[in-house]
Design brief:
Layout: H1 3-11, H2 33-47, E1 51-54, E2 62-63, E3 76-77, H3 83-99, E4 104-110, H4 112-120, H5 122-131, H6 133-157, E5 161-166, H7 176-182, H8 184-195, E6 201-206, E7 228-231, H9 233-236, H10 240-246, E8 250-255, H11 260-263, H12 266-280, E9 285-289, H13 300-312
Parallel strand pairs: 1-4, 4-5, 5-6, 6-7, 7-8, 8-9
Antiparallel strand pairs: 2-3
Helix pairs in contact: 2-3, 3-6, 4-5, 4-6, 5-6, 6-8, 12-13
Pfam families: URO-D
GO molecular function: uroporphyrinogen decarboxylase activity
Domain Uroporphyrinogen decarboxylase (URO-D): 83-313
């Protein structure tokens, strides 16, 4: 099997020749296009990972100032003709050219709420979400409309799918009714782009935030359209086996992103992978981490050890 065939088999919950694996971490936001291409290809080549997740380390061009509720109606976002989009488009095309066609490329996307949080501040976003939800919804729709076009542009540039970081379902942030009104519709607006395209895929990452102790309502996302789903097992106490009961798609993850994969030793990494697969089985799973690997001195040889352990299980 090629890497692409192997990951597709997992997404279809069919047997593969071996269990695939993939891990990632952030890069410097001031990297040039070529530096970003080189960094992704270095990780791919050194670790033998089965997918390439292209990191979203350049921020979206969301413009505006929020000083009152009415300001949400007047924000703007650069489109696919913007310098920011063109930079990411060039990264996708460059990685595709170097990696070839036998591996799936997933472009990371943050949701419209996260884009607004980065642009205006989380405190401002939450304040108006509670005080003026209709105004915030109008602003989020402006962002979602732009990001829907960005998602299409990513796929047209050669990405095989979207790695969607779904946030704002954290415990203590919104009630489920508020979340279903304010957040969910705009997540679905982005996710439907790949869902409705031929041979394109969604990886859903259910992401927590540090100010909410990374705890999120994993089950709120059960009906999101995804081919693979990923969440933090350690932070939510939500096992892969429980997730298999909750979601109708295959699963990515299982490993502590701040544990053995970061600190080693190799023997502990190998044992962690073995324990995951002993418990879950080998069908419908790709080994990965709870989230992006975070911490000092990230070592490709540790990532390779996890990939190899999955492949050799």
């Amino acid at each position: 099997m090629t890497r692409k065939e192997r990951v597709r088999a997992v997404m279809n919950r069919q047997p593969a020749d071996y269990v695939p694996a993939g891990f990632w971490f952030h890069y410097k936001p001031d990297y040039s296009v070529q530096e970003m291409i080189d960094a992704h290809m270095k990780l791919y080549r050194e670790t033998g990972a089965d997918v390439i997740k292209i990191m979203q380390d350049y921020m979206y061009p969301v413009k505006g100032t929020i000083t009152c509720a009415d300001d949400w109606y007047h924000i703007s976002v650069g489109g696919t003709d913007s310098e920011e989009f063109k930079k990411l488009e060039a990264v996708i095309r460059g990685i595709r050219q170097e990696a070839g066609e036998d591996v799936l490329l997933f472009q990371t996307m943050f949701g419209p709420f996260k884009a607004a949080s980065i642009a205006f501040g989380d405190d401002v976003l939450m304040k108006y979400s509670k005080e003026a939800p209709e105004a915030v919804s109008a602003g989020i729709k402006i962002i979602a409309d732009a990001l829907e076009e960005w998602a299409r542009g990513y796929l047209n540039a050669g990405a095989d799918g979207i790695y969607y970081s779904a946030q704002f379902g954290e415990e203590g942030r919104f009630t489920k009714t508020e979340w279903e009104t304010l957040v969910k519709p705009y997540d679905l607006q982005i996710l439907q782009v790949a869902q409705q395209a031929e041979e394109k895929y969604n990886i859903l990452h259910i992401c927590g935030e540090p100010e909410y102790h990374f705890r999120t309502h994993v089950d709120w996302f059960a009906d999101y359209p995804a081919d693979l789903v990923n969440w933090s097992v350690k932070d939510n106490g939500y096992s892969l086996e429980k997730g298999r009961e909750t979601f109708s798609c295959a699963i990515l993850g299982g490993m502590n992103n701040k544990g053995n994969i970061l600190n080693g030793p190799v023997e502990a990494i190998e044992e962690e992978v073995k324990e995951i697969l002993d418990a879950f089985g080998t069908t419908g799973i790709m080994i990965g981490a709870d989230c992006t690997i975070q911490g000092e001195n990230i070592r490709p040889e540790y990532i390779k050890a996890a990939v190899d352990a999955a492949h050799q299980y």
